[in-house]
Design goal:
With 294 residues, this protein is mostly helical. The chain has two domains: 1-154, Orthogonal Bundle (Tetracycline Repressor, domain 2); 157-294. The chain is built from 13 helices and no strands. Helix 3 runs antiparallel to helix 7, helix 5 packs antiparallel against helix 6 (104-121) and helix 8 runs antiparallel to helix 9 (197-219).
């Protein structure tokens, strides 16, 4: 169980971003493409888990001071550092081999992702602002990987929105680290010294506003309307706005912003909102030729 926990399988949900280009292009039921994306998902998850292991290996002493991270396999001593390194190299080799099998350009993007995260692990995460920007870039690389695998070009709107959404969640997580610092008096990560609670609240409000405006503009863009063959995408704005408002409520009212994936797994409101957004998008894009949707 400790070895499985070391891989952080719950965080593999982030790699579902590979499916975004296919979803927005209306090709979600193209099964050969979906199969290639699935293989890409496995490759990305393997490399991502290798990175998680490397981060945990380097941060195991600091993680012992964290109220939640102290339970991680390396910090708690459930997995030895040497065994963790062995698993790291196995995952790395397997992930890149599978990525090359899927497509060479995908392996190249995965390599960029790995190098960025390698730099992140070896010091870039200690630079305020740059640390959250690099996290957001990681999500952009995920959708770029999905685009390369499926041969579906990305619009600038999708890239902008994914970057902003990832930045928004990274800011919320850093804000949680600040709250932990205020309650415990201990810096959970070096970059926290460059942040303050007021600064993070301002960043959250700023990025949140830009996300909402960007999504509204995307749904009403003439280019998108022409490509999708419908003008009704703006109906989905309701669920995007509701989801962001709920996330802000969790951050400000519940003070529980530690992990966006944890919130996704446990918060029913966000789960329902996400499902309704997907259902509405499918109804509008994939069923637009049905009489009642015309």
């Amino acid at each position: 169980m400790a070895y499985l926990k070391l891989l952080r399988p719950k965080d593999w949900a982030k790699n579902l971003f590979l499916y975004i280009p296919v979803f927005f292009a209306g090709e979600f039921f193209n099964f050969p493409v979906m199969y290639r994306i699935f293989l890409g998902f496995l490759a990305f998850s393997a490399v991502a888990s290798a990175i998680y292991i490397l981060n945990d290996y380097r941060d195991r002493e600091d993680d012992k001071k964290h109220p939640v991270k102290c339970k991680r396999p390396l910090a708690s001593g459930a997995v030895s550092p040497n065994m963790a390194l062995v698993i790291f190299f196995i995952l790395l080799a397997g992930g890149f081999t599978l990525a090359w099998f899927v497509r060479d350009k995908f392996a190249f993007i995965l390599g960029i992702y790995f190098l960025i995260n390698l730099g992140y692990s070896f010091g870039l995460k200690n630079i305020p602002i740059l640390d959250i920007v690099l996290v957001a870039i990681g999500f952009v690389l995920r959708i770029k990987a999905g685009s390369v695998i499926s041969f579906i070009p990305l619009s600038e709107w999708i890239i902008i929105m994914v970057f902003l959404l990832a930045l928004f969640m990274a800011i919320g997580k850093r804000r949680d680290d600040i709250l932990l610092k205020l309650s415990s008096g201990t810096d959970m990560r070096k970059a926290i010294k460059g942040y303050s609670l007021d600064f993070m609240n301002t960043l959250l409000a700023l990025v949140c506003s830009v996300i909402v405006v960007a999504y509204f503009m995307y749904t009403m863009s003439p280019e998108v309307e022409e490509r999708m063959g419908t003008y009704r995408l703006y109906y989905t704005c309701l669920f995007v706005l509701a989801g962001i408002m709920r996330y802000l409520q969790i951050i400000y009212v519940s003070a529980d912003s530690g992990s966006p994936t944890k919130i996704l797994y446990k918060d029913r409101f966000i789960q329902v909102t996400l499902l309704l957004w997907i259902a509405s998008y499918i109804s509008i894009i994939y069923m637009k030729d049905i009489t009642i949707f015309k």
